[in-house]
Specification:
mainly alpha; globular; disordered C terminus
Length: 423
């Protein structure tokens, strides 16, 4: 096993439990994702931009609530409680949809809530991973663990594609909610595992401190600001491509849209599995995090220049597949390695600000920018792609900064000590 995936014998149990954890989470989410994305083609760019803005506002509130929970609730029950809460929320949406008075507003509320969930469930998972695996373990193990996300993201769309015609769209919510309960048992087994090196004391206590300290930690830490800029630039590229695909499929039947988005998810994650499982650890350990983080942005620069020269549907679809597969297998695990060098308070308070608020803020801002370019200025796909290529180049430069910062970061310093040195 060590030769294939660089996993030490003593790490096998914790690694495979983590693999199963993210597999189940992503299978649950990817049942919901094509349902959410299929709804988008029913709305105009202005309506969708408004929903992106609402998602950002909901994300800010959710992160603030999480800050309070993290400060007050025992760490032992924190992660379990988060996933139990989301499972209950999707059961509530299922019941609301069945009501005779169900309206289009429920669909829009569902779209916003799934968008909040899509970042929350992954952010909490990787917070836990960076909490229990060390900086030395992360480059070897995070790529393999991330492959569980890609496999789960294959199973989820397959279930959606197969079951949507048999069970109907609404009943898929029940399947997703049920899957979200499985990680609770995995968390308990993972918590009792002794195969990790980075475990901090005090797992039976709450993290404590100021519930909103995550905002201060983010603003005052150059590392966290760099990660925030990296995510913001990534979301700009993602939003531009997403909106264009949404517009291109506006005339397609809703059930078929679910299947198209599901098939796209399927292809993306098939491509991501082998890379994350066997290549990412080698890339990171051989070339370092700087090359790892810069690789996908540089590829996207080239891809967007191709789109600018040949603005056709199949080219945009290919770009979307490459972008997402590269993110899941290389960029995402690489970015999560950065959080192994900070303390627990930063992982569970400031990480939510970075992963969720910055991400959704980027979505909201760039959604309106796209709407302004296309509906306000009448810009075509070629012009939008050229602008995107410039954004991707800035993304690559930010990746270079983060990779170098990671290489020189002193883990012995807590986030609070770094803040004191910077003021």
């Amino acid at each position: 096993m060590k030769g294939a995936a660089k996993i030490e014998p003593a790490e096998i149990k914790a690694t495979f439990l983590s693999f199963g954890f993210i597999f189940t989470l992503m299978a649950s989410y990817y049942i919901l994702r094509p349902i959410r994305d299929a709804m988008a083609s029913d709305w105009s760019d202005v309506e969708l931009s408004t929903l992106f803005t609402m998602t950002f506002m909901a994300s800010v509130i959710a992160v603030m609530v999480l800050g309070v929970v993290v400060s007050k609730i025992s760490f032992r029950y924190l992660v379990v409680g988060v996933y139990g809460f989301f499972a209950a929320s999707f059961l509530a949406f299922y019941l609301a949809i069945q009501a005779p008075a169900a309206s289009a507003y429920i669909d829009k509320a569902f779209y916003v809530w799934v968008s909040v969930f899509s970042l929350f469930h992954v952010s909490i998972f990787w917070s836990l991973m960076s909490d229990i695996f060390s900086k030395q373990q992360a480059p070897r193990l995070f790529g393999f663990i991330a492959s569980g996300a890609s496999i789960g993201a294959i199973v989820g769309p397959l279930l959606a594609i197969v079951l949507v015609r048999q069970l109907g769209t609404d009943n898929l919510l029940l399947v997703s909610a049920l899957l979200l309960l499985v990680p609770i048992a995995i968390i308990i087994m993972l918590r009792d595992s002794n195969d990790t090196e980075n475990r901090e004391p005090g797992t039976s206590k709450s993290i404590g401190g100021n519930p909103f300290a995550g905002f201060a930690l983010f603003i005052r830490s150059p590392l966290l600001l760099g990660i925030g800029l990296f995510i913001f630039l990534y979301t700009a590229i993602s939003t531009f491509v997403y909106f264009e695909l949404k517009n291109m499929m506006s005339g397609v039947d809703k059930a078929l849209r679910v299947q198209i988005w599901g098939m796209m998810d399927l292809v993306v994650n098939i491509l991501a599995i082998g890379t994350a499982m066997f290549a990412t650890s080698r890339l990171t350990t051989r070339f370092g995090l700087t090359v790892t983080l810069m690789l996908v942005p540089i590829v996207i620069v080239g891809g967007l220049l191709v789109v600018a020269m040949a603005p056709m549907l199949w080219v945009v679809v290919a770009l979307q597949i490459v972008r997402r597969a590269g993110n899941y297998s290389i960029t995402k695990p690489g970015r999560e390695m950065l959080f192994t060098v900070v303390d627990r308070e930063t992982r569970f308070k400031a990480k939510g600000v970075v992963d969720i608020i910055v991400y959704r803020g980027g979505d909201a801002i760039t959604a309106w920018v796209f709407t302004g370019l296309t509906q306000g200025l009448g810009a075509g796909l070629g012009v939008v792609a050229m602008i995107g290529a410039g954004i991707a180049a800035a993304w690559a430069m930010t990746a270079r900064y983060l990779g170098r910062a990671y290489a020189h970061y002193d883990k012995a310093k807590s986030s609070s000590e770094q803040i004191k040195e910077s003021v």
